[in-house]
């Protein structure tokens, strides 16, 4: 036992240390300031109020129209001129309507300033899932706006004032915001109609296009409100077709702790899933009509790793909106943004709001002045203008045959996807097959997807400037106007079949790349080859360029400029071609813009297998305590592919890249042994800065330019169940100069890992914490069922942390159940190693949290009880002294309040008072307030029990200590320290009053902690409720009130030990009997349910388990109350019989074994008055006393002691065999008893003796099938057990009365002969 206890303590200490370290380290890392690369946005805002309609349901909210400009305007005249594209901004949790100013101001500047200057980098295209069955193959030239054009219409930005309410904390507030936004959308469309009608009256012009829909832009919870408004029944059909959300949760709320909030999210998401399904006909066939949400496109933009409030997993549209209508993209992978930003920064970060504003303006159709009607067209614009092409260039995202092309030709029919087979046909002078099955001759490189437009100015190279490159690596250090030839087949023969070019030259204007089937011998041959060559210049993808050194004079740079583009060609892309040419424009030919201060381009043929490195989980774990590294030697592949076996969202990596050499010898420098700084200066001049691309399927792309030292983390965790990306690998791609040698050092950052654990798995920990507490209460309930001392919560946690069992059972058992529940679903099973490891850490963290709560609460209660007992004893010692007379007089005056009727009622029925007050608060005010009342009741009970324990302990300190109860050899039965012939003795079987009160405290402490967690989960909702003005507070959600009422019932009825009465006579699971199983089974099931809810990121479901247990306990107690009434009627009848027959007190009825045991075990344990157990001095009496030890208070005794008495002789044990002691049957009462219990219909007898069982300590004697022993020379008893039946027979020699009692599963009867 000592070793076991030591292991228990070690487990608790480990859990506390782990939880404390994760919490402390994570908070330190999260609170560390992180540099923000965002530029500030400036504006001159004006907010014009919009008059609400008469049918507005709420007057506390308002609608405004934004106007950008510093000049004062006429509001009415401005509203009269409304003719743009309506856009409604919805603020988030605690947000202001004025947060629209940044994006609205930039959209105004974008409209008047025109589109972006045209670039020729590759644009992202549809994936196969995004393309679906759509016939949209690309965007024509006349669809997107060019720099020479003007946007067709401007954006009119509206915003709603939601009073800064915290919609992320309360589901009722979220529903009210949704209702108002629906009304605001309808009002905005009506306002446009009113303005157009007013203008038509003045100008007689009705040729304008009236807006049919409103674009919704929501931040944080405003994005979810936008989606909720779309499926609202009061929204007009087609009123919303485009939604853009900025850092908005879609899958779950950031704090899904309130049941109504979680249910509202579930209801809205279910409606969206059904909205994209075609409703079937009555016969079950699918309709040919469009789904209800078939025209709605949703774009979700999340902030990345620096957004601590909304993680990418929550912002994902996966499983809610199909890929054909939805796009999820992170700010770090967005074009022209490339930054991870905070939750609020996403609203004002200039790089992002500018890109979003121009993208929204690109949605406007040039013909109608309103957004495109086709949903695929709108999604194509978002994909092209927001998503980077890098994931498709490197094969991380699958491309589609209907890839989006930035059409620059005059016709869309020439826009084809250049697959490897098509490139081979081009090289051979063949035909390209179009989508309709016809063929079209290739008319030159200009007609291929990635060729530069004809309008691009370029000087044709002369053969005199051509350079033959024999090495696999080519370097360009200046815009020299030369064309460099590289032999593809020669490089492929050496195993180098892939080509990558990294440069800072702009495609089409600074550099061009072509693939040639052969090399022409003269100018005429080259002209003929122009029909067969393939240009791949626009296959170059843009990468963010890091800060470059300012150049004082041309050629005076001291380091290489950072690259801004990468061209990646696989072996399939090069198939069928012989040569690759890199043409660099001469410096004077760059039109309209100055050339870059320093030019660079490095291209290389390489074998991708040479640069690929896989880091195993054990290698990554070893780097937690020791920095690991590797050397990338010179002439290495330009692309170094690092594959992390464990996601960097689980184990963030600190990456450091140092240049050790750059192909120079000591003779290059003046010194024979150059210093490290001199060597670094030379290498910076020779090698371009490293660029790191990080790809993680759930979180997307993140680029780190000019990286030398950085902690790399991704905003995802594959250990979370439900992602369609089953792989947990994170790809880290290094673009490094092949001329230099690098030392790459990597080390897992434990502080960053702790912060990611808190951010990604805090919801799991919240639900698992409730599960751990349920497991602890299960042990308490099971101890009561086995008549063992009720352990404290801390002891239960210690027991559950014992390794290997039951730690593995509680930590990993629910995981197996969860796998079984979801393996047949649509989710992809996450990687087993990470899932088990992270879930185990969640379980350990939760145990540590419960242990800390238990220790703190015990410390507080013990301190308060000790202080009160000390003051009480001291006050008694001061009684009668003169200096306490004044204080006693004051207390006497104050005690007069106890005579009031209200006070006397409360004192007489405290449980009823708590129930009434808590219920009123739960249903009419707020559930958290009702739970606080329940917590106060628990705290008062815990304090009273500890005070009584302390007083009893002080009074018995000088008395002999009663012997402690130990474990008997029987099955789960409490024995006694003193034994006779292997059986408990009669003198050492009692439980002291102090021990009883200590167990009361342990049981109440478990309830206190459970309901404390429930109250904490409601606290965010309470804060949001308090923040609202007093007159605007509405009734709480019925779901919250109903579940909270179940918690109140659990707290009131489960606070008494009698609630733990066995609910099942014998429950057998897997062959193991769980006799007398009661609430412990429900607690175990509730713990597993909460654990699974945590894995599903739905901690609010823990309220379901708490409420169900409360209602089950209530139903059982109500049933027990009815049974108790029947016993009361029986005792009253026996009292009348005794009085009528005039029996003396000493001849009072001594209840026979039949009546006593049957009533005790079959009906209820607390149906017999407490005085029964107190009159007994036997093991049976001790057994019953322990069953009633929590209610041994004089006030609870309602029956007279003279009614029923047990035999003082009790039960005796002779030489290991059970002998029933004498229970004399009074002959005058026997006929009446038999008439009462055996009426003509036997059904009453069945319900009286249903599910009868023997006390626990009889199990040791059941091996004997027959015993015939004479006791005291008067009675003989025979005990026999056969299967599920129990037969007991007794014979009274003196009275000549024999009775047999048979209890079986089929029938119960009493026979007297």
TrEMBL record:
GO biological process, one term: protein transport
Location (main, coarse): endoplasmic reticulum
Keyword Disulfide bond recorded: no
EC number: 3.1.-.-
A Pfam family: PGAP1
Gene Ontology CC: endoplasmic reticulum membrane
TM regions (residue ranges): 12-31, 757-776, 807-829, 835-865, 912-936, 1007-1026, 1076-1096
All residue ranges annotated as the GPI inositol-deacylase PGAP1-like alpha/beta domain in the record: 82-362
Class of this enzyme: hydrolase
Region annotated Disordered, chain positions: 957-976
Keyword field contains RNA-binding: no
GO terms of molecular function: hydrolase activity, acting on ester bonds
Keywords annotated in UniProt: Endoplasmic reticulum, Hydrolase, Membrane, Protein transport, Transmembrane, Transmembrane helix, Transport
Compartments reported by the entry: Endoplasmic reticulum membrane
Family in the record: Belongs to the GPI inositol-deacylase family.
Task performed by this protein: Involved in inositol deacylation of GPI-anchored proteins which plays important roles in the quality control and ER-associated degradation of GPI-anchored proteins.
Protein name: GPI inositol-deacylase
Species annotation: Marchantia polymorpha subsp. ruderalis
């Amino acid at each position: 036992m000592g070793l076991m206890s030591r292991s228990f303590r070690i487990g608790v200490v480990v859990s506390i240390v782990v939880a404390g370290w994760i919490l402390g380290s994570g908070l330190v890392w999260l609170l560390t300031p992180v540099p923000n690369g965002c530029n500030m946005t400036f504006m001159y805002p004006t907010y014009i109020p919009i008059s609400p309609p008469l049918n507005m349901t709420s007057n506390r909210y308002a609608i405004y129209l934004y106007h950008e400009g510093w000049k004062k305007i006429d509001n009415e005249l401005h509203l009269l001129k409304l003719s743009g594209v309506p856009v409604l901004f919805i603020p988030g949790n605690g947000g202001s309507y004025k947060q629209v100013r940044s994006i609205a101001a930039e959209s105004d500047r974008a409209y008047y300033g025109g589109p972006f200057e045209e670039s020729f980098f590759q644009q992202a295209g549809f994936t196969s899932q995004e393309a679906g069955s759509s016939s949209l193959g690309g965007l024509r030239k006349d669809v997107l706006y060019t720099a020479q054009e003007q946007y067709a219409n401007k954006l009119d930005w509206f915003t709603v004032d939601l009073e800064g309410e915290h919609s992320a904390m309360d589901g009722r507030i979220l529903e009210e915001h949704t209702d108002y936004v629906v009304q605001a959308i309808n009002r905005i469309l009506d306002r446009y109609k009113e303005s157009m009608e007013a203008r038509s009256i003045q100008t007689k012009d009705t040729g304008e296009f009236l807006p049919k829909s409103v674009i919704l832009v929501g931040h944080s919870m405003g994005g979810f409100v936008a989606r909720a408004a779309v499926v609202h029944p009061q929204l007009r059909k087609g009123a919303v077709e485009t939604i853009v959300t900025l850092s908005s949760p879609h899958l779950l709320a950031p704090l899904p702790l309130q049941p109504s909030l979680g249910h509202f999210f579930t209801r809205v998401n279910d409606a969206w899933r059904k909205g994209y399904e075609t409703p079937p006909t009555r016969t079950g066939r699918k309709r040919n009509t469009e789904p209800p949400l078939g025209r709605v496109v949703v774009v979700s933009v999340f902030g990345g790793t620096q957004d601590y409030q909304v993680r990418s997993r929550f912002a994902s549209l996966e499983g809610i909106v199909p890929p054909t209508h939805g796009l999820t993209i992170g700010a770090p992978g967005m074009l022209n943004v490339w930054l991870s930003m905070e939750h609020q920064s996403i609203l004002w970060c200039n790089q992002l709001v500018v890109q979003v504003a121009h993208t929204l303006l690109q949605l406007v159709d040039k013909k109608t002045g309103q957004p495109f009607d086709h949903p695929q067209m709108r999604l194509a614009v978002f994909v092209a203008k927001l998503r980077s092409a890098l994931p498709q260039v490197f094969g991380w995202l699958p491309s589609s045959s209907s890839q989006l092309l930035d059409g620059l030709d005059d016709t869309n029919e020439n826009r084809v996807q250049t697959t490897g087979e098509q490139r081979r046909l081009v090289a051979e002078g063949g035909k390209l097959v179009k989508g309709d099955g016809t063929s079209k001759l290739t008319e030159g490189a200009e007609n291929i997807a990635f060729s530069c437009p004809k309008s691009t100015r370029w000087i044709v190279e002369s053969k005199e400037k051509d350079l033959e490159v024999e090495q696999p690596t080519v370097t360009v250090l200046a815009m020299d106007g030369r064309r460099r030839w590289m032999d593809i087949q020669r490089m492929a023969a050496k195993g180098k079949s892939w080509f990558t070019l990294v440069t800072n030259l702009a495609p089409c204007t600074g550099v061009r790349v072509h693939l040639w089937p052969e090399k022409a011998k003269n100018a005429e041959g080259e002209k003929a080859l122009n029909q067969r060559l393939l240009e791949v210049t626009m296959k170059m993808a843009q990468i963010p360029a890091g800060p470059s050194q300012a150049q004082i004079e041309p050629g005076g740079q001291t380091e290489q400029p950072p690259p801004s583009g990468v061209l990646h060609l696989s072996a399939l892309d090069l198939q069928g071609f012989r040569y690759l040419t890199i043409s660099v424009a001469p410096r004077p030919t760059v039109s309209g813009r100055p050339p870059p201060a320093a030019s660079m381009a490095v291209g290389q043929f390489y074998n991708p297998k040479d640069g690929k490195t896989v880091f195993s989980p054990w290698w990554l774990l070893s780097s937690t305590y020791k920095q690991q590294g590797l050397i990338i030697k010179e002439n290495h592949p330009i692309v170094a592919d690092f594959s992390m076996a464990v996601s960097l969202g689980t184990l963030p990596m600190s990456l450091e890249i140092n240049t050790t050499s750059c192909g120079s010898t000591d003779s290059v420098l003046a010194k024979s042994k150059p210093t490290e700084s001199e060597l670094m200066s030379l290498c910076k001049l020779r090698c371009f800065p490293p660029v790191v691309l990080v790809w993680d399927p759930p979180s997307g792309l993140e680029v780190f330019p000019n990286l030398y030292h950085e902690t790399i983390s991704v905003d995802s965790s594959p250990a979370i169940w439900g992602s369609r990306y089953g792989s947990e690998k994170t790809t880290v791609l290094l673009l490094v100069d092949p001329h230099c040698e690098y030392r790459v050092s990597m080390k897992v950052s434990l502080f960053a890992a702790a912060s990611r654990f808190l951010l990604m798995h805090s919801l799991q920990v919240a639900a698992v914490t409730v599960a751990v507490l349920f497991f602890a209460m299960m042990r308490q309930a099971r101890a009561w069922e086995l008549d063992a001392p009720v352990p404290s919560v801390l002891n239960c946690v210690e027991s559950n942390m014992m390794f290997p069992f039951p730690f593995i059972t509680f930590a990993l058992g629910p995981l197996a159940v969860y796998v079984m529940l979801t393996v047949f679903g649509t989710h992809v099973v996450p990687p087993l190693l990470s899932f088990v490891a992270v879930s185990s850490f969640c379980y350990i963290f939760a145990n540590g949290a419960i242990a800390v709560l238990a220790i703190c609460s015990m410390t507080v209660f013990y301190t308060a009880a000790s202080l009160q007992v000390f003051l009480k004893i001291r006050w008694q010692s001061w009684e009668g002294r003169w200096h306490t007379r004044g204080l006693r007089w004051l207390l006497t005056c104050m005690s007069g309040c106890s005579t009031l009727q209200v006070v006397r009622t409360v004192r007489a029925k405290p449980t009823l008072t708590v129930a009434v007050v808590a219920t009123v608060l739960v249903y009419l005010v707020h559930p958290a307030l009702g739970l606080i009342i329940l917590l106060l009741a628990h705290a008062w009970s815990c304090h009273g029990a500890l005070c009584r324990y302390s007083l009893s302990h002080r009074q018995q300190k000088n008395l002999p200590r009663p012997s402690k109860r130990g474990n008997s050899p029987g099955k789960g039965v409490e024995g006694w320290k003193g034994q006779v012939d292997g059986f408990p003795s009669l003198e050492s079987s009692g439980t002291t009053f102090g021990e009883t009160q200590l167990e009361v405290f342990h049981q109440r402490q478990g309830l206190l902690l459970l309901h404390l967690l429930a109250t904490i989960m409601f606290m965010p909702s309470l804060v949001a409720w308090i923040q609202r003005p007093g007159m605007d507070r509405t009734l709480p959600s019925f779901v919250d009130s109903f579940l909270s009422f179940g918690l109140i019932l659990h707290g009131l009825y489960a606070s008494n030990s009698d609630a733990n009465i066995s609910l099942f006579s014998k429950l057998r699971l897997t062959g193991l009997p769980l006799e007398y199983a009661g609430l412990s089974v429900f607690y175990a099931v509730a713990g597993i349910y909460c654990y699974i809810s945590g894995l599903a990121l739905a901690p609010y479901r823990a309220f379901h388990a708490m409420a169900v247990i409360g209602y089950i306990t209530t139903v059982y107690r109500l049933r027990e109350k009815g049974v108790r009434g029947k016993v009361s009627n029986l005792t009253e009848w026996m009292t009348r019989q005794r009085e009528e027959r005039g029996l003396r007190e000493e001849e009072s009825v001594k209840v026979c074994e039949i009546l006593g045991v049957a009533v005790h075990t079959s009906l209820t344990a607390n149906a017999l008055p407490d005085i029964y157990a107190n009159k007994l001095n036997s093991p049976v009496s001790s057994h019953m006393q322990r069953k009633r030890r929590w209610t041994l208070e004089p006030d609870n005794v309602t029956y007279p002691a003279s009614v029923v008495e047990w035999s003082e002789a009790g039960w005796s044990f002779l030489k290991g065999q059970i002998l029933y002691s004498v229970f004399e049957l009074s002959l005058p009462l026997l006929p009446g008893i038999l008439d009462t219990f055996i009426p003509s219909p036997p059904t009453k007898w069945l319900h009286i003796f249903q599910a009868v069982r023997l006390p626990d300590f009889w199990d040791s004697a059941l091996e004997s099938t027959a015993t015939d022993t004479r006791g005291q020379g008067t009675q003989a008893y025979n005990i026999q057990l056969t299967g599920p039946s129990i037969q007991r027979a007794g014979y009274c020699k003196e009275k000549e009365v024999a009775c047999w009692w048979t209890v079986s599963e089929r029938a119960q009867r009493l026979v007297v002969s």
